[in-house]
Amino acid sequence: MASIQLGEGEKTFIIHGICKDDLRSDGRTCLSYRNFELECGVVSNTSGSARLKLSNTQVLVGVKAEMGPPNPLNPSRGGIEFFVDFSANASPKFAGRGGDELAAEISNMLGLVYKNKKMLDYKSLCVIAGQCVWTLYADIVVLECGGNLLDAIALAVKAALYNTRIPLVTVHKDMDGTEDIDVSSNPHDFVTLDTKNLPVLVTVTTVGSGHIVDATLEEEACSMACIVAAVNKEGAIDGMVKKGSGSLTIDSIYKMLTSAKQIGKDLNKSLDDFLSKKGSDMSSKGFLT
Amino acid sequence: MAIFITTPRKRHVCDEFTEPQRLVTPGATITADSDFMRGHGTYMEEDELIASVAGVVEKVNKLISVRPLKTRYNGEVGDVIVGRIQEVGQKRWKVDVNSRLNAILMLSAVNLPGGELRKRSAEDELKMRQYLTEGDLISAEVQSVFSDGALSLHTRSLKYGKLGQGIMVRVSPSLIKRRKTHFHNLTCGASVILGNNGYVWITRTPTEEEEAPDGGFVQNLQPVSDEDRRVLARLRNCILGLADHRMMLYDTSVIYTYAASEDYPVADLLNPDIMKDVILKVRQQLNQEAT
Q: How many distinct structural domains can be found in chain A?
């Protein structure tokens, strides 16, 4: 991540606050999440998009649905691909190819989570088995990087997928048996994706002997290890990754996952509530206004 | 625990806002009169003086310049700054001060631990990293400005030096009001250093017996008490709230915001709607005083 350096005094202050008083520098408890801003349908030339701002972290996700040949191993299934781009505005370290390594790591992680066939109804993305399927390309741009990046990205991806409209296509057979694809000329004919099973990522960061969720950049600088768990709306874990150089005991992993489950459930609930109200918005005038 | 998701906030201009005189945007013609001299933030094109930044036009005799609204820190001699050590080099530290270039702090411009005054020897040079290392925060004063705008700092007073436990927040340097003093011991039990460079340091006011100023070379790493921590967290949220609403930061505005925020628990101040109410109260209070 875009890390910052802290002095010894600052680190001690943050660590004592978390381990001793359950009170973080911004007045939150260890397991409270910040409120965030979310806006859907911000980029007009995508199939679906979302912008999320969590304090100083800002991500923009655009989803583009494209028709193409399927993966030969799964001929009757559509797919999703992730591409992460770090804007050099987020941190000068990302200029040039600076963010590529981290970007590949994040897109791999999302790819692994979304590979599970229970996540999305990939079958419904199939147009003609073996010939033509919808592939979703999720392009993620990190505009500002201020801690808890993975959670923000996963939330924004879920919102953008909810916002995605795929044009309605019909397949009809010609006299000679060849199949033809007809794209509806009415722009209001579209299908949406079922995102109810999609998980969000919850990063649980260990600081000293305690653990926190929704860490700020300063808190991340005090941490040696974190667990990123993909949690769905039932609170079940769909995948997890441990990051950082520090080690964890079985005991603390168990505690961290319990927290992750609870937070993940709450996050999913809040996000689903929000999306059912504002998620199909397409009217935004763009995110610069 | 509920997590609130909101739609993006729209910035509202408050009712009493009066637009400053001679506010220009990049590309705006300031004058077509060729008698004037071109200062910072302007350029000449076809005998017209045009603004290159968004800001306020300032005129000194024949010199016209534009002072930008959003800018990195431009240092002036005597400014109090809070900075973070980036690099330890030959007889100097490089310090991040939110300026275009890193500032430098010479080994000869610091007080040695113990306060002895002497010429710096080769041993002192070897021990530099023990005094200040990468990531450490310091408060300092601007000693001089080089021709390229880089700053040279000094900490040769006991009020400056290494900073211990506390919170640093970053705000825009344009929001720091220039005052006689930038060190404030607030009545709530906390001290703030409002650095001219937009870095604000919040810490607990040291008690009498801890007072012995040593330039911060002896760090107190004892845990801060729960109440103190709450005060510091509240102060942090207040300062960020003020900055978010584009209010000038100085002792009075900070104290008023702190007092107005005491109706709410600390964590609630992260909610933009609550913060807006608090700031509105402060604004009214400050306006009342001004009239």
A: 2
Distance between CA atoms of A195 and A160, rounded to whole angstroms? 10
Beta carbons of B137 and A9 less than 8 Å apart:
yes
pLDDT, tens digit (0-9, with 9 covering 90-100), for A189-236: 888 888 888 999 999 999 988 999 999 999 999 999 999 999 998 989
Say if the Cβ atoms of A27 and B164 lie within 8 Å: no
Same domain, A160 and A203: no
What is the number of other CB atoms lying within 10 angstroms of the CB of residue B227?
11
Q: Is residue B27 part of a domain?
A: yes
Domain count, chain B: 1
Mean pLDDT for the stretch of residues B66-88: 93
Distance set, CA B217 to CA A182, B113, B139 (Å) = 75, 6, 12
B44 in a structural domain: yes
> Which tokens is B19 given?
């637009």
Determine, yes or no, domain membership for A149: yes
The nearest CA of chain B is from the CA of A28 a distance in Å of: 5
Which pLDDT score, from 0 to 100, does residue A251 have?
93
How much is the pTM?
Answer: 0.90
Look over chain B and give the mean of its residue pLDDT values, rounded to a whole number. 88
Complex-level ipTM beyond the 0.95 threshold:
no
Q: Which residue has the tokens 């017209």?
A: B48
Taking CB atoms and an 8 Å cut-off, how many pairs form between chains A and B?
A: 111
Residue B70 is given by DSSP the state S
